[in-house]
Amino acid sequence: MQNHSAGKGAPEASRPYGQPTTTLSCVPKLPASSLLDRHDVQLARIGNAAVAGEKLCYLFAMFDLRSDTVTRPTEGMRQAMARAEVGDDVYGEDPTVRRLEERVAELTGKAAALFVPSGTMSNQIALLCHCRPGDEVIVPRGAHCANYESGAGAAWSGVQFAQVGEDGLFDAAALDAAIRPDAYWAPHSRLVVVENTHNRSGGRVFPPAQAEGVVALAHGRCLAAHLDGARIWNAAMATGRPVSELCAGFDTVGVCFSKGLGAPVGAALCSDAETRARARRWRKMLGGGMRQAGILAAGALYAIEHQRERLADDHAAARLLGQALGAVAGARVVPVETNMVSVAVDVPAERVVEAARRRGVLVGATGPRRLRLVTHLDVVGPGFAAAVDALVLAFRETLAGC
Fold first, then answer.
1. Which of 253, 288, 290 is closest to 156 using CA atoms?
2. Full residue range of the structural domain in which residue 119 is found
3. Is the CB of residue 50 less than 8 Å from the CB of residue 386?
4. Three-state DSSP class for 76?
5. Fewer CB in 10 Å around end: N or C, the chain?
6. pLDDT 10s digits, 26-41
7. Which residues, other chains included, contact 280 with Cβ-Cβ below 8 Å and sequence gap of 6+?
8. Residue 129: inside a domain, yes or no?
9. What DSSP state is assigned to residue 32?
């Protein structure tokens, strides 16, 4: 019996490396003379198909920088998924799902893991495992589980959130100050959540020593600690630390496979064996029990083994993009730590979104005057230089005179 989903190797692509996705015939092609040489030279070191100094322009097509969730499976991943051994995972009989869960538990340093359809479900199951209705969960300001999961914490767990800190970070002192008094009239502070990396603040890494202090304080005050590690792979790449080290001490850890790793579906909740047993019941109750899920698990396994190391390329591309946009008057770029570029602008963000779209690049507005751009395996390559140029022109056009 062969395991077609594991084994390390170089990333494979289902399209020319760095070629964009959606065609858009109405987008004008930029002349080669508009490309910025410094981008070409630096991006040539990023894409494995790039050649230093080569002038490539893909702007008859759409580069999608709205999120790293838009990636498509590579050819190698598709093959692994097609060959996957499957069984009924609701019965616990899918061998590929079991291999994935064992591998993720090993990587995170936990005793067990549970495969679930999404990062949102992993967070919500964690809340259900740790909390009771009326409890309070302490989270970083702008936390995904409090702001981007459709109010599920209130709907399913009956919890409320106390948001602390700034820019996705807080320390043990801030946590200590937020814990409620032991009084009959107060909600019970039951759980603290750390988000690493922090989406809303632009892919910010939670400092490991600070996380250790938060977890120690939480346990000392009888709170559980959950790590929303949807992009923990990026945090590990940025810090140079093993994933297991960044997960140490947390009672539960959620990880995603469908973001920077490039799998089409899936996440996991990692914990001890007892918590996993309760989480499995909650997964079933929430409709997350899947039958022949090994096809999806094979994509996640392939992503873990073949597409983790290349996250460094995404980070390098994001830094380059941040430098280019930071040079535009009226644009203020948050220091780039991983694969996200967060930019504040002096005009309505939607104007920049539209200007970029006309030039063949999709970006997202995360506030009235803030944008987010995310690098990923579908766009990082030689053609990315042209997208950077197009974005610089879009920013200059909309910010002129500000």
1. 288
2. 75-306
3. no
4. helix
5. N
6. 333 333 333 333 333 3
7. 114
8. yes
9. G
